[in-house]
Design a protein that fits this description.
By secondary structure, the protein is an alpha/beta fold. Helices cover 37% and strands 15% of the residues. Strands 1-10-9-2-8-7-3 form a 7-stranded mixed beta sheet. A 3-stranded parallel beta sheet has the order 5-4-6, sandwiched between helices. Strand 9 and strand 10 form a beta hairpin. It is extended, with a radius of gyration of 39 Å. It starts with a helix and ends with a helix.
């Protein structure tokens, strides 16, 4: 019996020592495995270097995101025409008013019994199709001054400096209302720093002084007189009147839709006669139409009349004053007529001055 007990005790001791040895051996193996896995995990956890990016303009951010934006060219020709005065506007075409009717509507809303602003400004929103001659080209943003027959208080400070030679030209410029008129002495005052060009919004010059005026090209930069901006010419009085009392406007393409352009300009006040306001709108539309690209289709797509503080927008028909489509034959005839109107021979001084400017 005792022998059986001894044998059982011996077996128990062997099992405990075997398990202890096995545990020691396994603990070392498991520690080694943990060490390897930890090293691999450390290698995976590499610090990601954050690249510092400079300031990105708002119009260049998220360029990869293709956001579906609504077309800004409003075409409601597919909608039905309303049959009465009571209808839901979004399901029907915009009503088209004549200019006199639209002005009358705004005058009624600004009556003392309503908004009580009888001399509110009358603004025009002109929507343009800026598509160029090719599908991938667009008309550049432009800024112009439209000459109008009826003056009004535009509320802008417009100082005009005129460069010219000759007593007759100087008198003509002063009588037309120029802020400052001079010749070579005026150029010397500017170069010496006694007079600042930044105090004047517009610079006009006669071709007879253009050769001496080249010295101020670096100071003037974009203000330098040139025939394209209509700041260089023989008729000083006409140019001064145009820049002092004309309508200043600019056309800018949309940030996301390059073929859409918008012009916002003021053509007068509501207390003016309807005929005078209509004439101003006509001259403005005709001036805008001179920037039309040589392609088929419309350039001026829609014209709206507004008058703050009212939110009312009244659509008018611009094709009463300008052609709707571009016609090659009429454009060719106009170019030929313009060439005939130009003087046959320019003075030698003017030619030399233009050559020096170029």
């Amino acid at each position: 019996m005792q022998s059986i007990l001894y044998s059982m005790r011996a077996l128990a001791l062997r099992q405990t020592t075997g398990e202890a040895l096995r545990q020691l051996h396994l603990s070392a193996v498991s520690e080694a495995a943990r060490k390897g896995t930890r090293e691999k995990a450390r290698k995976k956890k590499v610090k990601v270097e954050v690249k510092k990016v400079g300031f990105i303009p708002h119009n260049q951010r998220n360029k990869k995101i293709n956001v579906k934006r609504a077309d800004k060219h409003v075409d409601d020709s597919w909608k039905q025409v309303p049959k009465d005065d009571c209808y839901v506007g979004r399901y029907y075409r915009w009503p088209v008013y004549s200019v006199s009717e639209a002005i009358q509507c705004h005058q009624e809303t600004h009556h003392p019994s309503m908004y009580n602003v009888p001399n509110a400004p009358l603004n025009v929103d002109i929507e343009l199709n800026m598509q160029g001659e090719k599908a991938t080209r667009f008309v550049d943003n432009f800024q112009r001054m439209a000459m109008i027959p009826n003056k009004f208080e535009h509320g802008e400070e417009r100082k005009i400096i005129v460069f010219t030679k000759g007593n007759n030209e100087v008198l003509e410029a002063r009588e037309a209302g120029a802020s400052l008129v001079g010749g070579v002495e005026l150029i010397k005052d500017i170069t010496s720093g006694e007079l600042l060009l930044s105090d004047y919004q517009y610079v006009i010059a006669h071709p007879n002084i253009l050769a001496e005026l080249v010295a101020l090209r670096g100071l003037m930069k974009r203000k330098f007189p040139n025939p394209k901006s209509e700041t260089l010419g023989v008729n000083l009085a006409e140019m001064i009147i145009k820049f002092s009392s004309g309508i200043s406007y600019s056309a800018a393409k949309d940030e996301y839709q390059q073929n859409f352009g918008l012009i916002t300009a003021s053509v007068g006040t509501l207390n003016m006669d309807k005929e005078k306001l209509e004439e101003n709108i006509k001259f403005l539309l005709q001036d805008v139409n001179t920037m039309r690209p040589k392609r088929e289709g419309r350039f001026i797509t829609r014209v709206l009349l507004k008058s703050p503080p009212s939110n009312e927008q009244l659509k008018i028909d611009p094709y009463v004053y300008v052609p709707e489509m571009w016609d090659k034959s009429t454009a060719k005839v106009k170019r030929e007529e313009a060439k005939k109107k130009e003087p046959e021979a320019e003075p030698a001084e003017a030619k030399e001055a233009v050559a020096a400017a170029n």
